[in-house]
Amino acid sequence: MLSLSVSGQSWLHKSPTPLKLIVLCVATFMLFSLQNWLDALLALVVVCGLYLSIGWSFAKIGIERLKPLIWMILVIMLYHLLTSRIEEGVVISLRLCAAIGLATLITMTTRLDAMMKVVDWLAEPVYKLGLPRRTLGLASALVIRFTPVFIERGTKLSDAWKMRSTKRPNHRLLVPLSLAVLDDADRVAEALKARGGLSSIKAGAESSKSAQTKDQRTKL
Amino acid sequence: MERNLVFIALFAALIAALGLIPKIDLASGVPITAQSLGIMLAGTVLGAKRGALAVLLFLALVALGLPLLAGGRGGLGLFASPTAGFLVGFPVAAFVAGLIMKQWQHSNIALVATVAAVIGGIIVLYIFGIIGLSITLDKSLMESTLLMTPFLIGDAIKAVITGLVTQAIAKARPEFLFSRA
What's the pLDDT band for B11 if we cut at 50, 70, 90? Predict the structure, then answer.
């Protein structure tokens, strides 16, 4: 799975991304100013309603994503129980669930390319200052391409360690791993320069790159 | 330009990979996620500007919805959670660590990098983290600071490891220690 968005055709999927992000910002600020448990509960019910308005199976994915929250809430409640401020703990927990739930909802209903477009729009002033337009896209593609490569290399290094040592792999593996990263970066930079560099990446290169990302998507 | 871009992007990938590889033992028997170690390394190896940009790129992709944060987490929800302050502090931490590497031209790289990691990756990062905690959990700054103390030991170990790894890189590939270039 490459992105956390869930494909669909709901009203929230179709709403414009910048609008969703602005509403999310405002709503989050408002949520964190709630001081009353009833208000916070109401907010959480509204967020749950939004999930359900998209469909039951979508809501189930949402619950699955938000499961790790349970531990956080337990810790928060325990802390407030020990300092005997239960009501405060309830307000904070409800508020957090609503705020995180809402933000997760936006992530789930917005495609990666729609988010990228917003970033591109925000970066417009920097482009005007002379940053080549392909920079952000190329940088993102490189991160997406090389993260699995480095995970695999880290796993291989730790396997090699386990073959030779009775001790568990430790921080010493970080040295060969980061050296490999730097060497890779050096070679990729050479290769990029040899192909004409950043500013001259034209339509042809772009189409081959999008083919490459498609390739990774199927791999992942 | 291309060189900077590729080093920044590949270091962002390293930060992501460090949070996703099976946990390695940092101290005897204590598995800790190495992601914040990656943040510290970005500063001490790539230097202030490139390091901060690598972290920003990593965070931007997390915010856009890629599951790159430790444990395969990602998305906007993280920026509303109690630990959001740490995410905001990450690029600043890398920047400060890189700045210290540049300003303090002592020849003992391990020492300088450890101090840089402590000041950037612990002191500066904790300031952001504690402010984030006190906003999301409605606690005073003092109380939030107390909540953070259990994590100090782990982060101190990571700072020392950052120093050792940075020194090893300085020995093996001195030309890639951009923080001193």
Answer: very high
Region B86-100: mean pLDDT is 96
Question: Exposed/middle/buried for B84, CB within 10 Å: 0-12, 13-18, 19+?
Answer: buried
Q: Report the chain A residue with the minimal C-alpha distance to residue B12.
A: A143
User: Which residue is associated with the tokens 């291309």?
Assistant: B2
| Domain residue ranges in chain B | 2-180
A96 phi and psi, to 5 degrees? -60, -45
pLDDT at A49: 95
Listing DSSP states for B120-153 in one string gives IIIIIHHHHHHHHHHHHTT--HHHHHHHHGGGHH
- Specify the DSSP class assigned to residue A83: T
Q: Among A184, A185, A170, which residue's Cα sits nearest to residue B37?
A: A170
List CB contacts (< 8 A) between A170 and chain B: 24-26
Q: What is the DSSP string of A136-175?
A: HHHHHHHHHHHHHHHHHHHHHHHHHHHHH-SSPPBGGGHH
**B66 pLDDT more than 70:** yes
Tell me the average pLDDT across A34-54. Answer: 93
Q: Residue A214 corresponds to which tokens in the numbers above?
A: 């498609």
Does the ipTM surpass 0.95? no
Query: Considering CB atoms only, which of A66, A99, A188 is closest to B6?
Result: A188
Q: Which residues from chain B sit within 8 angstroms of residue A65, using beta carbons?
A: 77
Q: Tell me if A138 and B9 make a contact (CB, 8 A cut-off).
A: yes
| Residues 6+ positions from A106 with CB-CB distance below 8 Å | A20, A21, A24, B76
Which of the four pLDDT bands, split at 50, 70 and 90, describes residue A205? very low
Residue B127 has pLDDT above 90, yes or no: yes
Under an 8 A CB cutoff, do A139 and B76 touch?
A: no
Beta-carbon pairs below 8 A across chains A and B? 187
What residues of chain B lie within 8 A of the CB of A3, using their CB?
65-66
Instruction: Quote the pLDDT of residue B32.
Output: 60
Query: Which CATH fold topology does B2-180 show?
Result: Arp2/3 complex 21 kDa subunit ARPC3 (1.10.1760)
**Are residues A185 and B6, on separate chains, in Cβ contact within 8 Å?**
yes
